[in-house]
Amino acid sequence: MANPNIVKPGVTYAQDYNLKTLVLLTPGGTFDLKNSLVELGYFEDIFSNSISGYLQISDSQGLIEKLQLIGNEYIRVSFTKASTTDFINDMLFRVNKISSRQLIGNTTTEGYVLNFCSDELILSEQYKVSKSYKDKKISDIINDILTGYLKVDPNNKVVDIEETKGIYSFIVPNMKPFEAINWVSTYAQSATPGSYGSDMLLFEDSQGFHFFSLQTLFTQVPERTYTYAPKNLDNKTATQDQKFYGVNSYQVVDAFDTLHAVNSGIFANRLITIDPLLQRWNIVDFNYKTYFNNSTQLNKYSIVNDATNRLGDKVYETPQAVLKFAASNKDQKNIPYIGNKPSAYSHDIFLETYIPTRTSQLSLSNYNKVKLFMNGDPTVTAGSTINFNLVSMDPATQGKELDKYYSGKYLISAMKHVIKVDGYKMIVEVIKESVPNQYVSPDTSSALWKNTIEGKL
Fold first, then answer.
1. Which of 17, 7, 6, 8 is CA-nearest to residue 426?
2. Are 141 and 170 in contact (CB under 8 A)?
3. Which residues make up the CATH 2.30.300.10 domain(s) of the chain?
């Protein structure tokens, strides 16, 4: 996750980068692969625990045999902007597979792909966590697994963990480290003021590991503003600096999907809890409008209006569409014969908060998703925010106005860095759960609206 207080230089042109190191590390020594490079790509994703990538090379030296490649090798990559050394991406990856091996024409040259990933991903598959954590914050548990089991050294990789609220006691039952982290993360709630619900994720970028609430990521100052304008429009909305950071093309991956929103509980869902010890039950309804008014967003306005269906309900007023059931220990410690014996009860796990909200939050964050194609920039990472200016396609504006709803502040959820000999490009996936301008709500009392939803027109 980028530090919002540091202004970093960007890469203006595809050729404006310097691949300083591309080395294969083997038990027999090191081998420089820069002259064999065809394409290097690596992926960052806030919904994935680790980085992965590939290195496509052209090999006329028989390196697979000569270097005895078997999957215990490492690849070190470092690159920066060509005109500065102020910011260097320096990463070490574990080779995990060779694929697409074939001859190139009628020659003795082979082409193949070295697939790689973070060493921590391999370690997470090799070892298990079997440990009791008593009276701990979830943020402390995650830090212990990262540094104690996966041996992430904070001196070499960033370990940036947001503090969580609440005290928990967990027994991790022989789980893989990343599996254990993802399990306890579902309970985690940020201690940062203004955060609401349970939307915390562990992810890795080029600098290291981060455990943050989506809402905390939303509050970051945008890295910079990127602008897309069709070439046939006289774009007068972008500054000269914004024109340098232009988007070459874009693709709207997700705009809205009402059926998915209803079936996944984005706008409304219901949790029914049962306390078998105290023999009582409770109903908790998630209401998107209530959540929106109490949480932190990227932009100012909601992604839905207040239109009603023919039964008179708004989209966030039908919680019965998605039902979940869970056993709860809510307020057990307030019962005298339990609270007086601390060892007899677990800390409140707050499932009445985390289940309904997390059900919505992770899907809601992806409600609007756009893929941007642009020149590469090593300083841009998943988990950062940007402003995206999309010029309105309305011919009446003649390129003088921005799209009112698909422009705005976005969170970078995933990205692919692609380095070739002749250039450096990025494919950036950005998401948002709010819009910069308000959607108009219909006059539900009008005859026109009533006749429309009742099918009389």
1. 17
2. yes
3. 18-117+222-255+367-432
